[in-house]
Structure formats: structure tokens, C-alpha cells
Amino acid sequence: MNPKAISPDLLKKYVEGKCNPDEVEQVEQWYASLNNETAEIREFNQPRHLKKIQELIRHQTDDEIQPEQPVKIRPLVPNVWRYAAAAVVLLIASLGVYFYLNTTQPVVDQVADAVSIVNTQKQVVRHQLPDGSKVWLNPAAKIQYTARAFSETSRTVSVEGEAFFEVTKDPARPFYVKSNSLLVKVLGTSFNVKSNSDQSWYEVSVVTGKVSVSVPDRQGKEKSVLLLPRQQAVFEVASGLLTSTELSKFREKVDTWQPISLTFEDEKLSEIAMRLQKKYGIKIKLANPNLANCRLKATFDHNRLAEILEITTQMVEATYEMRGDSIIIDGEGCGTVE
User: Fold this and answer.
1) Across the strands, what pairs with 284?
2) Please, what sign has the CA dihedral across residues 225, 229, 231, 233?
3) DSSP reduced 3-state for 81
4) Is it the case that residue 16 has pLDDT exceeding 70?
5) All structural domains of the chain with their residue ranges
6) Beta bridge partners of 183
7) What sections of the protein cross the membrane (predicted)?
8) Cα–Cα distance between 85 and 96 in angstroms, integer?
9) How far is CA 190 from CA 36, 58, 205, 247, in A?
10) Once rounded to an integer, what is the mean pLDDT over residues 131-149?
11) In a 3-state reduction of DSSP, which class is residue 164?
């Protein structure tokens, strides 16, 4: 993006927190092109980022922009404990920035108009599709598509592994996901696809909207099931059986892609890890014992586990990675509170 093409009015809206998601991403792309921020993903710092944005705005306009309500961010306190205070708006803004920057990390192989993206990291990463739809790729997941696949009549991608989709609504152009034997058709919804070639079954789970899942039977005829929110389709590879089930809203454990709301009031990272373990039924380990002393005050409103982990680790200047059924958080940590 040409730096001179950005609108000063748009930058002012960004600083004042009045941008819609598309405008936020436009500003972040412009900012990244100027500062080569993709090289600093591990060290993303929200106060530094906003400060640089404001400095760039001053150079972009003749008059210095003064927001009516300046953004206030409490810095982390080193060596004693890092106390992070963040409202929902700040969390979501930080998340959008991080995931935009993080989309540069998967291996992208583009031949002619074909795009193939593999998540070689040990974290969940986000990729935005040509139509504005978003996909979160689990480690080792792969997505493929061509420019021609996003036509005036349809949108089609292929995926291997586990991925969560948020599809932009477009009734005139159905969205198709091909995954091994499965064909998923949607108009605009959010759902999770789990289709690893080495597993004996595949799963499609719906969060919002309506999804049709179909597979060919042994005679080559198509069989399908229609899924509504909180429903799941399971395809057994050996038998060819395709069934649909309800996802109980009352069960204590939820899947990692399901959004939840949590509030942490001055809680240690060790306590937060325990709450996430209980909620998602996963294992979370702190590689450095000093991380247990870091305290956070934050509100997560309808966020997925990957989003909560990204924001939480940023706030305590740590990183995380997925190892099988465990999540490892590593970083310098915080000193013992006196």
C-alpha cells in the first residue's frame, strides 16, 4: 500500500477507536508497509505501536491530530510483576493487529494464480481469503485455492488438517470447503473442519449459520446432512457412515475453537492457566516458574482459545506453542511479589 494513499481522516478515526474492522485492517496494512512490522511479531507492543501510529499521523497531515479521548495504556512493570489492565476494545484491537501481522508467517507457495498456505508454526495463525472470509489454521494445517475459485457464482477452497472458518455472507456465491472426502457448503457462517488424513474420522462443527456436509457413498452417490448452530457432522472413513449430533450446551468442556467469555481480575497467570485448562479440557504448562507470578486484569468477550492465548502472552511478554494436546507458555516471567 502506498503510504501517501492513506486518508488522514481514517487515521484520526483509528486513533480514536472509531474504525470498523475493515478500516482497522487497512490502517494496519499501511502501518506495516511503512515499518516492516512483520519482522517483529514476537515483540509486538501495543503502546509502542499506537505511539508510532500517532507519530506517522503528524507527518501525514499539516495539523497535528489531537484525539478527543486519548488512548490510555498502562505500561507493564518490569522485574516485580507485570500488571496488565485492558478493556475489551483494547483486547480486540490488539488481537486484530497481531493476527494481521501473524498472517505473514505460514509458508505461502504461489504458482500462477494458485495459492497454497501451510501453517508450519506451533501456534494457530489467521489468513484472510480474497472475499474477506477468514480462516484460522491449526499447526500443520494447509489451505489451497486459486483466484479463479472466487468467481461471480461461487467460492471454493481445499483444506487439510484442522481449520476454523468465518465466512463472509454472500447469498449469490456459495462458499465450498473441500477436505479429503468431505464437501462443506455454506452461504455465510462460522464452523470448524477437522480432517486429518491419518485419522479414522472427520468432523465439521457449526458455531453460527447453516452448513451442508456431503460425502460420496460406496456407490458414488452423494449423501449429506444439514447442520445448524451447535451441531456436528462426523464421517467415519472405514464404514463411510455420515451422522450428525448435537453439541451439548451444558457440558463443562468446550472445544478450543468455541468462543467463551472470561474476566480476570488481578489474577496470576498460573490461575488463569488452570481456568482455561478446566474450561477447554486441555493441558497448559508454564515453562518458566516465574511466569506464575505475572498478574493480569482483563476481560475476554466471546473469544476463542487461540485469541485468549495470543492476548494473554502478549500482555506478559511471553510466547506459546502447541505440542500435541498440551500448550506450553514460555517467557521471562515476573518477579515474586513482596
Assistant:
1) 327
2) positive
3) coil
4) no
5) 3-73, 74-103+252-338, 105-246
6) 178, 214
7) 80-101
8) 18
9) 32, 40, 9, 15
10) 92
11) strand
Pairing of strands 211-216, 175-179: unpaired
Spell out the residues 6+ positions from residue 286 whose beta carbon is closer than 8 angstroms to its own.
Answer: 269, 270, 273, 292, 329, 330, 333
pLDDT of residue 167: 94
Assess contact for 234 and 201: CB atoms under 8 A: yes
CATH of domain 105-246: 2.60.120.1440
Tallying the residues shown for the chain, one arrives at 338
Distance CA 208, CA 59 (A): 43
E strands in the chain = 83-86, 107-111, 114-118, 125-128, 134-137, 142-146, 155-166, 175-179, 182-186, 190-195, 201-208, 211-216, 222-227, 231-236, 241-246, 260-268, 283-286, 295-303, 318-323, 326-331
Closest CA to 254 of 297, 212, 207, 204: 207
- Third-level CATH fold of 74-103+252-338: Phage tail protein beta-alpha-beta fold (3.55.50)
- Whether residue 102 is predicted with pLDDT greater than 50 in this model: the reply is no
CB atoms within 10 A of CB 103: 17
- Whole-angstrom Cα distance, residue 235 to residue 36? 44
Q: Which amino acid is at 101?
A: L
Cell of 180: 479429503
* Structural contact between residues 150 and 166, judged by C-beta atoms closer than 8 angstroms: no
* Grid cell locating 212: 451442508
Average pLDDT across the chain, whole number: 75
HSE-up (13 A, CA, CB side) for residue 60? 22
Residue 280 or residue 254, greater confidence: 280
pTM of the model: 0.63
All three cell numbers of 263, joined, read: 474476566
Measured distance CA(76)–CA(168) in Å, rounded: 37
